[in-house]
Amino acid sequence: MSTHINAANKNDIANTVLMPGDPLRAKFIAENFLEGAKCYNEIRGMYGYTGTYKGVPVSVQGSGMGMPSMGIYSWELYTEYDVENIIRIGTAGSFHDDIKIKDIVVALAASTDSNYIHAFDVPGNYAPCISYELLTKMQTASAETGIGFKAGNMVSCDVFYETKEDWWKRWRTMGIMGVEMEAAALYMNAAYNKKNAMAIMTISDHFVTGEKVSAEERQNTFTDMMKLALETAIK
Question: Is 3 a member of any domain?
Fold first, then answer.
């Protein structure tokens, strides 16, 4: 057992793990997409399950919100359970008219306003980015399923309730597609531990139009994103 995950042994968790921020989304995926899913973690209500998808073992583990929480769970999966691939599945906010509500976006890179990088004592700036191996697998999965996506630079932010109304426009100027809260920490952990990581998000909020989806939709819909991640996981 690790500090925050109570799987009895390494074999309880698959080589590839899908990580939604919401633990109830992990439960939804286990119950609706995985065969023979068994719960291996309930500590702090952060559910983790392992089952099979089309005969291939896959795990799904809640990460919680924000980079500190993602940093903890992904680190333990990589270092204490020998997980090789983590695919974040979650939600994001769009900064552009042509990236619409319910579009699927992939973070090729994760800009950030966080100081998470200080843990690695890097003597300068660092650009967290996707694992090319997972990206190519997802491109194959996309072609086979017909589920499209848009890819580019996202920003991972520490603060959800910003006090400056137009803060996001500065990021948009630099071509950032939108905002989320976990990818940068995941990508840094993967890089340091020589593992693979990818972040796939569905747009749930739109900074230009003001559109939002409901909390229930965030938890129980966005199934195209889930299917694309699962198809990638078994490649």
Answer: no
